[in-house]
Amino acid sequence: MAPELPTLQSDPKSLAADILNVLRYRVGKDPSVATPHDWLTAAIKAVRDRIIDQWIESTKETYEHGKKRVYYLSLEFLIGRLMRDAFSNIGLMDDMRTALASLGVDIDLIATLEPDAALGNGGLGRLAACFMESMATVGVPGHGYGIRYVNGMFRQEIHDGWQVELPETWLDHGNPWEFERRERAFEIGFGGAVESITDKSGRLERHVWKPQERVLAVAYDTPVVGWRGNRVNTLRLWSGFPVDPILLSRFNAGDHIGALAESNKADALSRVLYPADSSEAGQELRLRQEYFFSAASLQDILQRHVSAYGDLSLLPEKAAVHLNDTHPAIAVAELMRLLMDIHGLDFDKAWKITRGTFAYTNHTLLPEALESWPVRLFERLLPRHMQIIYAINAEVLLEARAVGRFGEDQIRRISLIQEDGDRRVRMGNLAFVGSHSINGVSALHTELMKETVFADLHRLYPDRINNKTNGITPRRWLFQSNQGLTSLIRETIGDTFLDNVEALKELDDFAGDAAFREKFAAVKRANKERLAAVTAERLGIRVDPSALFDIQIKRIHEYKRQLLNIVEAVALYDQIRSHPERDWAPRVKFFGGKAAPSYHNAKLIIKLANDVARVINRDPAVRGLLKVVFMPNYNVSLAEIMMPAADLSEQISTAGMEASGTGNMKFALNGALTIGTLDGANVEIKECVGDDNIFIFGLKADEVASRRADGYQPREVIEKSPELAQALSAISSGVFSPEEPGRYRGLIDGIYQSDWFMVAADFDAYADAQRQVDAVWQDSPDWYARAIRNVARVGWFSSDRTIRQYAEEIWGVPL
Length: 815
What we know:
Blueprint: H1 12-25, H2 36-64, E1 69-73, H3 83-89, H4 93-102, H5 107-111, H6 123-138, E2 142-147, E3 155-159, E4 162-166, E5 179-190, E6 193-198, E7 204-210, E8 213-225, E9 232-242, H7 248-252, H8 256-259, H9 261-269, H10 280-309, H11 315-318, E10 319-324, H12 330-342, H13 347-357, E11 358-361, E12 372-374, H14 375-381, H15 383-403, H16 408-414, E13 417-418, E14 424-426, H17 427-433, E15 437-440, H18 443-451, H19 455-460, E16 465-467, H20 474-480, H21 483-493, H22 496-499, H23 514-539, E17 548-553, H24 562-578, E18 587-592, H25 600-618, E19 626-631, H26 636-645, E20 648-651, H27 663-669, E21 673-676, H28 682-689, E22 695-696, H29 701-709, H30 714-719, H31 722-733, H32 745-753, H33 759-777, H34 780-793, H35 799-811
Parallel strand pairs: 1-2, 1-10, 2-9, 10-11, 11-15, 15-16, 17-18, 17-20, 18-19, 20-21, 21-22
Antiparallel strand pairs: 3-4, 5-8, 6-7, 8-9, 12-14, 13-14
GO cellular component, one term: cytoplasm
Keywords: Allosteric enzyme, Carbohydrate metabolism, Glycosyltransferase, Phosphoprotein, Pyridoxal phosphate, Transferase
Protein name: Alpha-1,4 glucan phosphorylase
């Protein structure tokens, strides 16, 4: 058993002394001239010191007892701010507040200065962050691997309603949590040629890849603290550095730009998350990034394994390497290369070890999100890996043909190489065949994987696909983001739920308790007042906290159907003006999310949301009954304010297209009712909370597929729905864009002509569900009883539960 740590004193007086010590000797400041950022750094480092002993002990214990370690490879880790999480998880939040107050420092003030690490785009990256915290909490020895993006996901500003992308310079003041590990640096190659080495008889012995370019991947480690501080794991992020920072001879000859070319190439690898891949240069950089972090991570893993155990055949017993979506799928070919070319194993042994080591999580059914790369680009950038992929493909296709159950079309779909048109390497297929386990992230998504994107591979390997429904960490998404509700729950049912969130089910008994409902409503009101204050401060828009707060915050994408929500807002606007005599429920519709820089329609939807808001919010005929707000720069910190304030959670994706969602879980845990389709994890949320405590509408996944197959005619649907037709006409004709009447004509024509995302098909059902929402909202006791049941019944959606399932059923890590 690990010793009880940390050993440093953690009372407020000792903490204050240590903060002053750090401020003087490690920040180099006297308190009289220290800036708020200096105090932030000093506070974090004083607490970080109390984490390090347990961090080291956690690592030593893993090796001394030969425990299996999990390595989680993810191109995104949307970790957000870490200070409150870490302080809370080791039980120091109250003492740190007191310690800083004794020094004249407000912890809430400096907490807002901590950068929101923009190392992810959305749900996939936030899931990875939740998983890292839960691994440490439940006792899974784990390493996360990713890229230390200097800018990460862009900072979003809204100029005249349009999204503007600016660099997110989260490292401007340094990162006091991380440790640079210059000694953990690995060379990563690109391009060049492959040389075949033969013995005296001319038989092939091995291949030697001789890259044309080399860069260094340097590790930066951040401790990840589990709940109660019992285990501390590592998030290791790689930064790119040149092998030769400057070609001095070229610099002295006057070629200053050329002399720094290698440095610039290396820097680009860890500069920006998801470079635009609409150009060939962008595609190449994206592939370089994926190989860069995958190769560095595998070299690190193998070096650690060989040092500890020696025998590479033991790798599947001692290491579980998990691929978070297709971004690190190149790791399959890279591990084969390392095992064969560097460690001398033959193909069969290397393939057995590789498949035993890797597992793969699929996060999407969208074909465009299952990455593929042009063969010509792959061959130029990674020539040895292309050879290995061809060899793996031959192995898989021979196996498929030997089964005798597959026709030529099925064989083509199983192949790692797409032969139609421009030949491409299918990274999803590579991840699938190279892994012993492939999991979906909700029950519906997993079944659809078997029926759609991986149908043929599932027939070939019927035992590999399994489900692991996503989860969220309650420490971040309840204890820290909603302290008022946490305190109320502790007062009501005790502290058991702090260690086992499923104990929240005891709240079910209080849904009918009028006194508890009043307290619950008061907490919600305080959270709404906080969001209202932020809205007024940032946008100058005043909203009424007594109105229903209807919130849709997530990445902007057509399948997530922000457009359906906006069109319904326009229809509601028309109805409020046309029927002022009706008893309308006051409502504020909040939107937030970023659109990919090259995604035209998504950016147009952001502009439309802002144009609609401008018109509705200024119209006195609405009498304040409806307001529309687009919150710029949606990130983790903003989510922590908006989710506790939500009354209604919009989870309205086209059925069959959302893999899981985790925002739906966060909202429900914070007492919002869900309006949504039977898509992703909504299906399981409905099962947990009960039909009466969720608003479900619209086509099911199989019905969407049938509509598309049967030649769906959206124009006929629109013509039968006066409210929808009027709303679409208003948008298309320029009512909300009088300065450019045709701005949205193409967007609306897309609904009339194809309506791939079923906006028209689901509109009437959605509008009816919203009127049901109004009716329940106006019966306040009933609304809050339903909200309380949501909180009580969604404890199952904890990432602790998810990680335990991964550990027991995929990774083979005993708990």
